[in-house]
Amino acid sequence: xxxxxxxxxxxxxxxxxxxxxxxxxxxxxxxxxxxxxxxxxxxxxxxxxxxxxxxxxxxxxxxxxxxxxxxxxxxxxxxxxxxxxxxxxxxxxxxxxxxxxxxxxxxxxxxxxxxxxxxxxxxxxxxxxxxxxxxxxxxxxxxxxxxxxxxxxxxxxxxxxxxxxxxxxxxxxxxxxxxxxxxxxxxxxxxxxxxxxxxxxxxxxxxxxxxxxxxxxxxxxxxxxxxxxxxxxxxxxxxxxxxxxxxxxxxxxxxxxxxxxxxxxxxxxx
Length: 270
What we know:
This protein is α+β, with helices and mostly antiparallel strands and 270 residues long. The chain has helices at 2-67, 195-199, 256-259; strands at residues 104-120, 125-129, 131-133, 138-140, 145-148, 155-160, 165-173, 178-184, 187-193, 208-213, 220-243, 246-255.
């Protein structure tokens, strides 16, 4: 009887150990599942916040550009500053910013260049502001050079400003001087002058270059250069938002040519 009782006790102890082990295993799995779900929920929540903040930042960039004209923008740097923490819990106090809890936003616009090249489709055109704006004033490009691949003569261009226009004819081109058609209000006449003379006119602001591919079947490769900065016809906007280890980047292209489309209805030389 003692041996039988000992076996029962040993079996009972083994069963208890197994039950305790199962309870521990189930509790551990449940706890792990809860933690995992919590982590997943936080991940989903942060991803949604970052996604929404990135789109909001893009809208902010577009509104700023529209307010200050379409060829000007104030970037928000990817550092802790009064603008980048605008979506945080304490937007008026950067000292209370927490990278684990608060959204940080930034955006950058790639718009100011001294050299630009592009391929124009048949019968297509681009409009390029020959200036750029900053916090102080307008900075004009005072001289430009236009080159085409293999001296393609299917290019035509105008420069349109607030009070006058010039239109270039390929056959009159020389290395230093350009014979141009100048339009001053309703008067059209031929005049020999350099592009620099036209662009440097102190009474003339907001110069726009309109380049047109007159070929109906072949594309046109061209390159525009200047010693001064000018605005690209297509502006790249890169928006970024982050919280903790979650980041999202969104890229947008703003087409100045589409915005400035009415300028296309001007005088072209062929």
